[in-house]
Specification:
The complex is a heterodimer. By secondary structure, chain A is of the alpha+beta class. Chain A has two domains: 46 residues; 134 residues, Roll (CBS-domain), CATH 3.10.580. In chain A, 43% of the residues lie in helices and 12% in strands. Chain A has nine helices and five strands; from the N terminus they run αααβαββααααββα. In chain A, strand 1, helix 4 and strand 2 form a beta-alpha-beta unit. Chain B contains eight helices and no strands. Chain B is 66% helix and 0% strand. In chain B, helix 2 packs across helix 8 and helix 3 runs parallel beside helix 8. By secondary structure, chain B is mostly helical. Classes of the chains: A alpha+beta, B mainly alpha.
Chain lengths: 206, 178
């Protein structure tokens, strides 16, 4: 029996896992006698599935997952410019580069929300709620700010050879949703976001 | 898991096969055993030799009735039968007249030898047992028992399996050779 009875290798709820009924149906679909019990088949399947996930976790690298080329902003850009760049590219976070093109930090929607409502939790609805209740324009404090002031720094970056397993662990440890992939000089090669990890898990590889 | 929990079992029986599958299993078994019984009748009646050994009935269940099973593949069928016959004859020769000990040794070693050589074929255990418990006619064959009836009969039954199991579109045999 698998060691963990509550969750399968994919971390799925038991109802969403392969059941013995599924296996029995499949066995009926194949003609001929299979001398394996549904229970044994499930045990083999669970172990093989876990093995495949581990193998994919180690074989898929940041360079396979990342979105490239990178949309980035300069450290001296105003937050207005940053917002425009993000809006045009349709991304929720961009790396902030120094004059030499090296990654200094990352600025995301969450960083904007933090600046707009330094007291509350950085969420869009928090900002909307305060705006509606106080009638204050929360964007005003952002007018004079530069990307370097609002960004999260130092940036959590990835090497192109970081594995899917390492990236997943890093994202949950640091509570981040994206990270720039950088070369040895710290110049950005691409961005990996949580969505990219989901795509890889679902087998949708670019 | 507790001993009692293990005794309860933890899964269910595989599904029943279709009538079509049963019909093909019947035909293979009939032709396979028919071949060894018919040739035995034609050529070996009244001779010290035979082409039939009881464990072929058990082999028929596998090579005509459970043809996807690893236990039913040519390596397991022919290898398990012949190796078990050799083990059984050896036990009989080592302990003549001591069937109470030779019989369990023959079967136990046959199972281990089949496992070690990846040729596990359950009827092989019967083949080893028959080498000891089969009486003077079997004992007199000596190691010939492994070739005739066991080896020759197995090859004949295998030839039938290769034909009959590949006639229907939905059946395929073997899964592997070696």
């Amino acid at each position: 029996m698998p060691a963990n009875q509550d969750q399968g290798p994919g971390g799925l709820h038991p109802d969403h896992e392969l059941s013995e009924q599924d296996i029995l149906k499949a066995m009926k679909g194949l003609s001929g006698y299979l001398d394996i019990t549904p229970g044994d088949f499930k045990e083999v399947f669970d172990l093989a599935y876990g093995q495949a996930l581990r193998r994919l976790g180690l074989s898929i690298k940041a360079r396979d997952l990342m979105t490239a080329p990178v949309v980035s902003v300069g450290a001296g850009d105003s937050l207005g410019q940053v917002a425009q760049v993000m809006a045009e590219a349709g991304v929720s976070g961009v790396p902030v580069l120094d004059d030499g093109g090296r990654v200094l930090g990352v600025i995301s929607e969450k960083d904007f929300l933090k600046r707009m409502d330094p007291l509350g939790s950085p969420s869009l609805m928090g900002v909307v709620a305060r705006c509606l209740s106080q009638g204050a324009c929360l964007l005003a404090p952002l007018l004079e700010e530069r990307a370097a002031q609002a960004m999260s720094a130092p940036a959590v970056t990835l090497g192109p050879e970081a594995t899917l397993a390492e990236i997943s662990a890093l994202f949950s440890e640091r509570g981040i949703n994206r990270a720039p992939v950088v070369d040895r000089q710290g110049r950005p090669l691409g961005m990996v976001s949580r969505g990219d990890l989901l795509g890889a898990r679902a087998g949708r590889r670019a | 898991m507790s001993f009692g929990g293990k005794l309860k079992g933890n899964t269910q029986s595989p599904p029943r096969v279709s009538l079509e599958e049963m019909a093909w299993s019947w035909l293979g078994s009939f032709l396979g055993i028919g071949a060894v019984a018919g040739l035995n009748h034609l050529y070996f009646a009244g001779t010290p030799w035979t082409l039939i050994v009881g464990s072929f009935g058990a082999s028929a269940s596998l090579i005509y009735g459970a043809i996807k099973s690893p236990l039913a593949q040519p390596r397991n069928f022919v290898g398990g039968q012949v190796l078990s016959a050799l083990v059984g004859v050896s036990a009989q020769m080592a302990l003549p007249g001591q069937a109470w000990l030779a019989a369990p040794l023959a079967v136990a070693f046959a199972v281990v030898v089949m496992h070690a050589t990846k040729t596990l074929h359950p009827p092989g255990g019967a083949t080893a047992l028959i080498a000891v418990a089969g009486g003077p006619q079997v004992h007199d064959l000596g190691y010939l028992y492994a070739l005739l009836p066991v080896g020759a009969g197995a090859l004949l039954m295998l030839a039938i399996a290769l034909v009959v199991n590949n006639l229907p579109a939905k059946r395929r045999y073997p899964e592997f050779w070696l």
